[in-house]
Design goal:
This protein has about 240 residues and is α/β, with parallel strands linked by helices. The chain has one domain: TIM Barrel, CATH 3.20.20.70. Helix content is about 35%, strand content about 20%. Strands 3, 4, 5, 6, 7, 8 and 9 form a 7-stranded mixed sheet that branches. The chain has a two-stranded antiparallel sheet with strand order 1-2. A hairpin with a 4-residue loop joins strand 7 and strand 8. Helix 1 packs parallel to helix 2. The longest helix has 11 residues.
């Protein structure tokens, strides 16, 4: 398990199976395991990783990275994965989103949108693929709306500008997407303080918050974040 900044400079963050069990015990509602090197290395997500992590969980597990066909998705569901997340494959073949939603149900299909600032785009944000290495020439907001129309059940926007910085979620980026779709949006990338979780929920009106660094390096516990949010009137599962 690794965590980086802007999708690079990766640091070892421990064993995924041990950490999955730890986070479940801490009260995480869901877990996401994103194989950020799969597409770059031209391989599939490693099924053995997914199987081992799923085997210790009762909460939903989302897996992403290297998923490019319905067969890839079925293989993950067969080993206990609850949802799959697509980014590069969806950009390459948008019809895959529709086919997946029809085959497995929208509730199991997440489209991850990695974005970076680009003033030439209508929204100011461009979709990036291949682990953040390539611009896709797509506007993030237009792409989010299209993915919802294709049947994606959730959208997971991650700001490359904010990823791993601990400087806070990229609220303008996240809000631009949450305001344009009706499906749940999961904020991701940049959490470093308890206030950041509250800010993105209130200002960007997201359905859920995802974080990595602050949990992997034990800055906060899941329960600390939930307690903080609950005390400020945000409904959470305590």
């Amino acid at each position: 398990m690794v965590k980086g900044v802007h999708f690079v400079d990766l640091r070892d963050a421990g064993d995924p199976v041990e950490n999955a069990a730890f986070y479940q015990d801490e009260g995480a509602d869901e877990l996401a395991m994103l194989d950020i090197a799969a597409t770059v290395e031209g391989r599939k997500t490693r099924l053995d990783w997914a199987r081992e992590v799923a085997s210790v969980l009762s909460v939903p597990l989302t897996v992403g990275g290297g998923i490019s066909s319905l067969e890839d998705m079925q293989a993950l569901f067969d080993v206990g994965v609850s949802k799959v997340s697509m980014n590069s494959a969806a950009v390459r073949d948008p019809e895959l989103v529709r086919q997946a939603a029809e085959e497995f149900g929208s509730g199991r299909i997440i489209v991850a949108i990695d974005g970076r600032r680009d003033p030439t785009m209508p929204s100011g944000f461009e979709v990036v693929v291949s682990g953040g290495q390539k611009g896709a020439g797509l506007d993030c907001v237009e792409w989010a709306k299209r993915c919802e129309g294709l049947g994606a059940g959730e959208i997971l926007p991650t700001s490359m500008d904010g990823d791993g910085t601990l400087g806070g979620y990229d609220i303008p980026f996240t809000k631009s997407i949450s305001e344009c779709v009706s499906v749940p949006v999961i904020a991701s990338g940049g959490a470093g303080k308890l206030e950041h979780f509250y800010e993105v929920v209130v200002e960007a009106r997201v359905a859920a918050v995802l974080a990595a660094s602050v949990f992997h390096f034990r800055t906060f516990s899941v329960q600390e974040v939930k307690t903080y949010l609950a005390a400020r009137g945000v409904p959470v599962n305590l």
